[in-house]
Write a structure and sequence with these properties.
The protein is of the alpha/beta class. Helix content is 31%, strand content 21%. The protein contains 10 helices and 19 strands. The strands form 4 sheets. Strands 7-6-3-4-5-2-1-8 form an 8-stranded mixed β-sheet, covered by helices on one side. Strands 10-11-12-9-13-16-17 form a 7-stranded mixed β-sheet, sandwiched between helices. A two-stranded antiparallel ribbon has the order 14-15. Strand 10 (237-239) and strand 11 form a beta hairpin. The longest helix is centred in the last third of the chain and has 31 residues, at 446-476. The radius of gyration is 36 Å and the shape is elongated. The two termini are 39 Å apart. 24% of the residues are buried. Residues 20-26, 156-178 and 230-241 have low confidence and may be disordered. Keywords: Membrane, Transmembrane, Transmembrane helix.
Length: 478
């Protein structure tokens, strides 16, 4: 023990004393100038120690359900599954793996953050927030060559959300639905040279809202978009608290069939619609990404106000009031004209043009559809005989392509909005946890106190015994 302490003391003195060479034989170097120049020690007398690299930290991992999603990533019929990762030290990640629905999936890094410039004052500066995007492909045919074990994972404590966090942040991601079939248990693993960190991916599905008057054909179009044409009973829908509102998912999107607009209560209906759209800014699970205005080709377009007067604004379609609410929140909308075969062929073009002009709809976002089979009775060809011509479903796929096209244009904005929302939650969580730790009174460990008292008593008793034994030894001497 003495030799160990002496060696440690020599090492400590060599490192801490400025007048002592930090390495053995360093005092002989002035005699060898060429060796000094070769080793680069001619101008420095000390060795600068390098910093230990901190492990990567994943703040958020977010994604939206890709368009055309059918339950498995990497399919040709669906868009790529993009995952945005935000954190610190992401440039250190040399391997990214994805675990989805019980399977290891292939990954491809689309964008890698650059290594931040080195600064000697890094301890006093906040780390730079970095962003990485990966594409998740189909499941691997074989498990990873280097499987991740619990020993290789860096344990990270995530404090739960408390009531002191801002209510608008807490409600931002609360909702009935946040994922889709095949996106359960979605975890991302990032591995550096020394450690592996993981983060559960937060998934959001985009919502498309159907808006129209009574008899516009919203429900039949809703069923057609879900693929339930001709089915009276379909179970792939969820009901809101309002029984007149239905919601179902198809192709990675949630379609919402809202109650028909009642023109008798137009003011209250407009207020309800405004609150429904505004709830998305405080609740991303309820955010409306697109509105489909449904108009029946055989119906007249009601105007508001009904009576014209010089003191009143010029009449406009009643549903324009709802579209104005959507425009105020920068929510895009498209138009679906239903019941195509309810009018004669020579009247279709005129009525379609009139509806597009009334609602100021662009031809690129307007589609004429027949969302359910339409039966057209023909005249009697023979006594007691009648045949019916069945007009097939048309235009639904074309309408779906328009929906996907509009949402693709907004995809980057949607991904960034989701990532920023989750980051606000994480930062608020950490801030709340830090404040709670500072406000918590320090706890005195009873065991440490008892040990200190025992040590003090033991030391005092030892001193007393030493004095007594010394006195007794002195008395025994002649």
């Amino acid at each position: 023990m003495r030799s160990y302490r002496s060696r440690f003391q020599k090492i400590y003195d060599s490192c801490m004393c400025s007048n002592i060479s930090p390495f053995v034989g360093m005092d002989q170097l002035p005699q060898f100038s060429h060796l000094q120049q070769l080793l680069g020690l001619s101008t420095v007398e000390t060795v600068e120690l390098g910093n230990i690299v901190e492990p990567p930290i994943i703040r958020t991992a977010t994604t939206v359900v890709p368009l055309g999603w059918n339950g498995e990533p990497g399919q040709k019929s669906s868009d790529p599954l993009k995952v945005d990762i935000m954190g610190h030290g992401l440039h250190l990640c040399t391997l990214v793996q994805a675990y989805l629905n019980g399977n290891w999936c292939s990954t491809a890094v689309e964008s890698v953050p650059l290594e931040p410039p080195y600064s000697s004052n890094q301890e006093n500066t906040a780390p730079e927030l970095q962003k990485m995007r990966i594409l998740v492909g189909p499941p691997l045919k074989k498990p990873p060559k280097y499987p991740i074990t619990e020993e290789s994972l860096l344990p990270i404590y995530v404090p739960p959300l408390s009531d002191s966090i801002a209510p608008d942040l807490m409600s931002l991601f609360e909702g009935r639905r946040g994922s889709a079939d095949g996106l359960e248990g979605f975890v991302i693993y990032c591995t550096s040279d020394f450690v592996t960190v993981r983060k559960e991916v937060h998934v959001r599905a985009r919502r498309v809202l159907l808006l129209g008057l009574e008899g516009a054909g919203k429900t039949s179009l809703f069923r057609a978009l879900l693929g339930h044409v001709g089915e009276k009973n379909y179970a792939a829908v969820d009901s809101y608290a309002n029984a007149d509102t239905r919601e179902g998912m198809a192709g990675g999107l949630y379609y919402v069939d809202c109650p028909s607009i009642n023109l008798q209560n137009l003011k209250s209906e407009t207020t309800w619609f405004r609150e429904e759209l505004q709830s998305g800014s405080h609740h991303l699970g309820k955010k409306t990404d697109l509105i489909i205005l449904v108009h029946n080709l055989s119906h007249r377009i009601p105007n508001y106000p009904i009576l014209s007067s010089p003191s009143l604004p010029p009449p406009q379609p009643a549903l324009s009031l709802f579209l104005n609410e959507a425009k105020a929140l920068s929510i895009p909308w498209i138009m679906a004209i239903t019941n195509k075969f309810s009018v004669s062929t020579h009247q279709q073009n005129r009525l379609i043009s009139f509806a597009m002009e009334a609602y100021e709809a662009s031809p690129s976002v307007t589609r004429v559809v027949n969302s359910c089979p339409f039966f057209m009775p023909n005249g009697p060809l023979r006594p007691f005989g009648r045949k019916e011509a069945v007009m097939p479903v048309e235009g639904v796929n074309s309408l779906r392509e328009v929906v996907h096209g509009v949402l693709r244009e907004m995809e980057e904005t949607t991904l960034q909005e989701l990532a920023d929302g989750r980051l606000a939650i994480e930062l608020s969580r950490e801030k709340d946890n830090s404040l709670s730790m500072q406000q918590k009174p320090p706890k005195h460990d009873n065991s440490i106190t008892a040990a200190a008292v025992g040590a003090s008593l033991g030391a005092g008793l030892g001193v007393v015994m030493a004095i007594v034994m010394g006195a007794a030894s002195a008395l025994r001497k002649p």
